[in-house]
Structures are given as structure tokens and as C-alpha cells.
Design goal:
single chain; 216 residues; alpha/beta; Rossmann fold; 6-stranded mixed beta sheet; 8 helices; 6 strands
């Protein structure tokens, strides 16, 4: 069996004009998980990311200088676009600026997106699930035994829920649990694909490491 290790990007810039930029904490988180993998002598045979800057920069800060393969199916769904579509361009200020309110509204919005309860989003939920599955197949169609992927919370939630055979709502429940630079591990061989470990952060399990924990 081969391993697919999917790591969520480091903390990005919530509430800033450009979310797709790692914060200083995000770079620290990436360095910590990269150091852990080296300490474990876990050497990837293949590197894959989405096309987002925060994903590629996470891989770089982990200490991998080799250019990764890129598959856009690993990109996060556009949560700003979904909120705009649901609220018809009038997203409440509290939803945009307050973390608790934002993620509560995002959860409800994704559930409505899954049910096709509003129009105007640039991507349907069916299109999202199809591209994530395409990316999973791309990452596992290989002779490599250790594939390292850097992606985002929604993609990880979707990939995990499908591997578990869970209802579609589980995707968002898992999405909101995924910590920055958490590791989710799958085993694969041919058409076999199974979850081995979800949302692991051993690199945070020290007195200093606990200061690096974040979810957004």
C-alpha cells in the first residue's frame, strides 16, 4: 500500500484584502510540520499542490524547494463567492468581520450550496466534488509510495467524507475541524483508497507547539 499525506496550508490572512497569503504564524506552522516529517524520516516521492499561493508557500516553508506538480482540483471552494451568491451581493458586515459569525454563516451557506438552494455561485457543489475526485485520482495514479499533497480544509473534508462513505453534510463538519498544517493520511493501492489518519498535529503537541495551533 502507498500513502497519500494531505496537509492543510498554514494560517492565511483572514479579514485581509488578500486571504491567499500566509501569515507569519502560517509560515511557522509549515516549518514545524516540515521539521516533523524530516525527524520521522518521511521522505515524499511526489509533491502535489493546488494552484493557490498559500498552498505553494506552505510547501516551500516546509522546506521543499522542488517545484510541485499542480492540480487545481486541490484548490479550496471560493467561500467569498458562495457568501456573495447566498446573500445576493449584500453580505452582512458581521459575517465578513467576525470569526464566529463568519464560520457559522459559512456552514449554513455550504449546506444550502450542497442542496442547490441558491443560484449565482461560480461553481456548483457537484462541480466541486467532481474536481476533488479528479485531483484524488491524479495524486494516486502513480508508482510513488509516498505522495505529499498540500491543499485546503474543504478539499480535505470532501476527500475524507467520501473515503468514509459519509453523508454529504459530513464534508462541512470535517472541513471546520481541520487545523492549519494538520495531516490527513490515506492508504491506496489500485482502486483501493481508505482513510488512515485524520487531522493529526503531533508538531503542536509540545508546550511551544501549542502556541502554533489555529483553524483559520
Amino acid at each position: 500500500m502507498a500513502e497519500l499525506l494531505v496537509i492543510r496550508h498554514g494560517q492565511a490572512s483572514f479579514g485581509q484584502d488578500n486571504y491567499d497569503v500566509l501569515s507569519d504564524l502560517g509560515h511557522e506552522q509549515a516549518r514545524a510540520v516540515g521539521a516533523l516529517l524530516r525527524d520521522m524520516d518521511w521522505v515524499p516521492d511526489r509533491l502535489v499542490t493546488g494552484s493557490l499561493k498559500r498552498q505553494k508557500d506552505t510547501l516551500s516553508s516546509m522546506g521543499y524547494s522542488e517545484a510541485p506538480e499542480v492540480h487545481e482540483g486541490l484548490n479550496e471552494y471560493d467561500f467569498g463567492d458562495l457568501l456573495n451568491a447566498r446573500f445576493k451581493g449584500e453580505v452582512p458586515d458581521l459575517v465578513k468581520g467576525d470569526r464566529k459569525t463568519h464560520f457559522r454563516a459559512l456552514r449554513e451557506t455550504v449546506f444550502e450550496w450542497q442542496d442547490a438552494a441558491f443560484n449565482g455561485a461560480s461553481e456548483t457543489y457537484a462541480e466541486f466534488t467532481a474536481r476533488v475526485e479528479d485531483a484524488r485520482q491524479f495524486a494516486t495514479d502513480t508508482d510513488a509510495k509516498r505522495v505529499l499533497v498540500v491543499s485546503s480544509g474543504g478539499v480535505i473534508g470532501q476527500m475524507t467524507s467520501v473515503a468514509m462513505g459519509a453523508p454529504k453534510r459530513q464534508m462541512m463538519t470535517l472541513n471546520l475541524q481541520v487545523k492549519n498544517t494538520a495531516m490527513t493520511r490515506f492508504m491506496f493501492s489500485g482502486k483501493s483508497f481508505s482513510l488512515h489518519e485524520f487531522n493529526a498535529t503531533p508538531h503542536f503537541m509540545t508546550p511551544n507547539g501549542t502556541k502554533l495551533l489555529s483553524y483559520s
